[in-house]
Each structure stands twice: as C-alpha cells, then as structure tokens.
Specification:
The chain has a ten-stranded mixed sheet. Strands 5-6 form a two-stranded antiparallel ribbon. The chain has two domains: 296 residues, Alpha-Beta Barrel (TIM Barrel), CATH 3.20.20; 56 residues, DNA polymerase, domain 1, CATH 1.10.150. A hairpin with a 4-residue loop joins strand 3 and strand 4. Helix 5 runs parallel beside helix 6 and helix 7 packs parallel to helix 9. It is elongated, with a radius of gyration of 21 Å. The chain contains eleven helices and twelve strands. It is of the alpha/beta class. Bound molecules: S-adenosyl-L-homocysteine (SAH). The site of S-adenosyl-L-homocysteine (SAH) has 18 residues, from strand 8 and strand 10. S-adenosyl-L-homocysteine (SAH) binds next to strand 8 and strand 10.
Length: 370
C-alpha cells in the first residue's frame, strides 16, 4: 500500500496566534454572555439588550443604547463589543451592487469579504482564516500560506458589517442580508470550532444571533473528510460546497494538494453522506482551467461519479492569479463540458464572475497583496 502524505506537507501552520484578539459577544454562548455582564456588575438581562443592539439594530455606538445605564454604556460596549475589524479599504463595482472590503484586525492582520447584491437576494462571502494553508496552486490566497485563524467574533463581524451596509442603504435601497458563503480567504473546516460557533451565532434566533436559516449558509471546503463528517452530525442544515476541480486523483493531487490525504472517492463519499443526512444537494465546485482539467473525458468521468447523486456542479471560470501560468477555459470548451455533464443527468451551472475588476472574484482574495 502506498502511504499518502498528510497535512504536514502543506503550509498549514499559522504564523500568528489568535490570542491577541479580544473576546467579543459573538465569541460567547449565552452563559458566557451572562457571566460577562455579572463581571461588569450588571444584571444578566443586559446581555440580551446588548445582543439586540448588535444583532437586530446592527449598532455598536454606546450613545444609541439608551436602555443601558448612561454611566455604564461605554464600558459595557468596550467589554462586549470591542471593535475587531477596521475598514482598511472598500472598493465597489457593478453600480455599487458588489463591494469588496479589506479589513484590518486588531493585530494588523488583513482579511477580506465581498458583499454581492442581486435582485432577489444579498450574499456576503466571508473569510474564515487570514491566508490559507491548503496551498491550491491556482488560488491567490493559497500562495501565501496561513497567517492565522480568525476568531468567531471576527467572522461574525464580517457578516454583521454586511448586514449593516445593506440595511443602511449603502448598497442601493435598504435590504436584508439573506445569504452567507464561506468562500473568502481560508479553509473553514481547518478552523472548525470557530467557524461552527459562528454558524451557530448566525443561525440563532434574534436577539441572540442574526436569525439566518441554516440553508442560507454555505460552507465551502477543499475536502477535509473528518470535518465534513463532523459537520453533518451537527445537523445545522448548512449547505456544503466541495471544491473538487478534478474527477481523478492524478490531477486533483496537484490542484488540491489535500487530495493526497483524502482522495476523490473518499471525499465524494463524505459529501454524498452529507447530502443524504441534510436532504439537500451538495455543490461541486469546479474551476475551469484551460487544457488542465477541461477535457471532455474529465466531464464524462465527473458525470459518471455524480449521476444519480444529490449533487450539482458549479463551474467557475478560472480567475488567473497574478503571474499564473494558467488561464480560463475557452467558452466553447466550457459549453461542451456543461453539455456532457447535463447529458449525464447532472445539473450544472456556470458561476458569474462578479467583482472580477476589483479582484473580488473567486480565488482572488489575497489581502497581503494590497
Ligand atoms: N477553502 C475553501 C474556500 C475557498 S474559495 C474551498 O476551497 O472551498 C471558494 C472557491 O473558489 C473554491 O472552490 C476555490 O477552489 C475557488 N477558487 C480559488 N481560486 C480560484 C481561481 N483563481 N479561480 C476560480 N476559482 C477559484
């Protein structure tokens, strides 16, 4: 039996620790929120008041929290709602319907998120880590390695900031945030406990959380099998996207190096089990890379693997990263790929490339470059 190299092969060791980041309301469960209030000499019901300001009213300005005692407001906010992310840069396109935000964390780590408004929904694409240790060679974030995990508070803050911008009419007429996708920087399942706590916070009914439904949240993964299986057991109903990018181990070993640890058959098995447990289709992400993974025979092989399964394919035209030797597939090659998958009975869509001109599109989030 050939032994497959493990995670240690990857550039997955964080360069910084999360310990510099102050604790935030979103990092705490109910008991911890109440305890934090007691420590401040306040009755525990004030935790609910602060939650309402943050998750429902989307405010952090103590002046506006008139139901809190005037003398204690500032201190309560400092302790429970410390500012975790400052805007380092914001760039918009698509008439203001797409906005990329570069955030500076308290330790000067940089991360990005992208808000995309559509006629019928508004989605925020959030980062789960600063950088990424998974080293996929076509992805800008993968090139730089992992800086550090983000805390639950830092993840939730990206979502609350998006909800606030949408609610306050900063992106057209005021609207509600409807979807969250973990498709920004980082591998969410490599920061499992903090991502999971963030999902719990996003799905907790207001005022304890943002009250989003599980099915409006998508966790996208390179395919960390134990993480996929664990997530299925949580029964949160979140959608799963699997970044497959190749149907055969020979190619996937190079495009998604973690494949050396959990090969195609194993990762698909875990993803199908996830679909069976949640009753919801999984999404197979496939970046179309010219003359690398776009051959008709690979479409046929992918079709064979997915036929009859609760899965659909989302083809992403490759966004070439700076200095990349790779290009997006030709349109007619892409069409043939779609055609073959559909002929095999697999629903297939081609992702739009929103935000491309502001480097906000898939795989281009690499804050270190800014
Ligand atoms: N670590 C997670 C989230 C990453 S980003 C994951 O791998 O799923 C979300 C998607 O963008 C992934 O499918 C990723 O493979 C894809 N992607 C990364 N770089 C890209 C690029 N240059 N062009 C197109 N898609 C890319």
């Amino acid at each position: 039996m050939t032994s497959r190299p493990g995670l240690d092969l990857l550039n997955a060791r964080p360069k910084r620790a999360v310990s510099a980041v102050p604790k935030h309301l979103a990092d705490m469960d109910q008991a911890a929120r109440n305890a934090a209030m007691s420590e401040l000499g306040q009755p525990s019901f004030r935790a609910g008041q602060v939650s309402r300001h943050y998750f429902e009213r989307l405010i952090t300005d103590p002046e506006l929290m008139t139901d809190l005692p005037a003398g204690a407001r500032e201190h309560i906010v400092q302790k429970l709602l410390p500012s975790l992310l400052r805007v380092a840069k914001a760039i918009s396109c698509d008439d203001g319907w797409t906005r990329k935000q570069l955030w500076r964390c308290v330790d000067d780590t940089l991360v990005e998120s992208v808000v995309m408004r559509y006629p019928d929904r508004a989605t925020v694409c959030v980062s789960s880590q600063a950088g990424c240790g998974m080293a996929c060679p076509f992805c800008a974030t993968g090139q730089a390695g992992l800086t550090r995990n983000l805390t639950t508070g830092e993840i939730v803050e990206q979502v609350v900031a998006a909800a606030r911008a949408l609610a306050h009419g900063e992106m057209g007429t005021p609207t509600r945030l409807s979807n969250v996708v973990f498709m920004g920087m980082g591998e969410p399942l490599a920061n499992y406990s903090r991502v999971l706590a963030a999902v719990r916070c996003l799905t907790a009914p207001a005022p304890d959380g943002l009250g989003l439904s599980g099915r409006s949240i998508t966790v996208s993964t390179v395919g960390l099998v134990p993480g996929i299986r664990r997530l299925a057991e949580e029964r949160l109903g979140v959608r799963l996207a699997l970044s497959l990018h190749a149907p055969d181990d020979e190619l996937r070993d190079t495009l998604v190096p973690i494949n050396n640890r959990w090969p195609v058959a194993e990762v698909l098995d875990a993803a199908f089990a996830y679909a069976a447990q949640t009753g919801r289709r999984i999404s197979i992400e496939y970046a179309m890379i010219k003359e690398v993974n776009d051959q008709p025979w690979r479409a046929d092989l992918l079709g064979e693997l997915l036929a009859g399964q609760l899965a659909h394919v989302n083809l992403i035209p490759l966004n070439p990263t700076p200095g990349s030797k790779w290009d997006a597939s030709e349109k007619k090659v892409e069409q043939e790929f779609v055609h073959r998958l559909r002929a095999a009975g697999v629903t297939t869509t081609v992702r739009d490339t929103r935000g491309q001109e502001i480097d906000g599109a898939c795989g281009q989030l690499a804050a270190a470059e800014v």
